[in-house]
From TrEMBL:
Domain Aminoglycoside phosphotransferase: 38-242
Source organism per UniProt: Ornithinibacillus caprae
Keyword line: Transferase
PANTHER family per UniProt: AMINOGLYCOSIDE PHOSPHOTRANSFERASE DOMAIN-CONTAINING PROTEIN (PTHR21064:SF6), AMINOGLYCOSIDE PHOSPHOTRANSFERASE DOMAIN-CONTAINING PROTEIN-RELATED (PTHR21064)
Pfam families documented for this protein: APH
InterPro entries: Aminoglycoside_PTrfase, Kinase-like_dom_sf, Pseudomonas-type_ThrB
The protein's name: Phosphotransferase
Amino acid sequence: MMRLSLMRDFLAFEGSKALISSILEKWGGNANTVQLIRASNNFSYAFQDQHERFILRITPEGNWSSLEEECSFLHFLLNQSICVNRPILSKNGNTVEEFHTKFGVLHAVVFNFIPGDSFEIEDISTNHFFLWGESLGAIHQASRNYLPCGKVKTIQYDLLQEVEELIPNNDVEAINELEHLKVWLDSLEMNSDNYGRIHFDFELDNLIWNDDKVSVIDFESGLEGWYVADIAFALRDLFTEQIDLSNPQFKMFMSGYRSKVNISDEELRRIPMFLRLHDLVLYATLLRSMDIEKHAHNPDWVNGLYDKLTYKVEGYKEKWKKLHR
């Protein structure tokens, strides 16, 4: 998630329509059709051009090379007949455009719009779980043959370094958890069968359903890591109460996954530890996002979101206190 101050200021900016219009001009889109879809890690807008719909994604504080690499991976997956967003070239022939604004450097990418349905985990059927796993298995199978076009962020080095830099020196519980996870990750084997380019946010929010066809969006969080980490992160909502690898829905997900690529039961037994990694990464991300205090001058949605994030942060701290007693 981006910094709350940036989200607040960007969405309240009186000149935002003109700014988005100037960004969209790089692709020749119709600014009068722009609609905000989501603001989280980035600002995502839908727009129309020549009766076709597209997605404009604006990333604050992003990294040009990592966004280029994301688009390269998407083109690779499309060539493997995997249903993902297709990056659209700008009028300058670029997949990524850079803009210097009062909000700092913004990077923009345009994708084709994929129509379809989205579901919450409590609303999906057994067959949905199979197809969900099958889709992730297909990506991991393809990933084994992918050669990155540039440097790709890794879990065990780059991501953990980012987390470490965000955790305050006096945050004992989080530091203890970080050190524990560092030692554990260092002990894991890395090979072409268990480690490669992963989505890293393969939850239902990033899947679009058209009957039995699954399309995948939002690869911006992608990095290099263990494939089982992708499974753990995808199914985190299934394991909110208890991590049960005998859960019928989990087993159906894995049946779909294993229909495309093999993974050992030993690897799957690492899911609980990767879920702990997810908690720590999200905790650090929330700390970074909460760069403002509650204030009467803030919009109600900002103060409400701040309260929600504070509740999550405190929940992680309590969990780690119990773990490290």
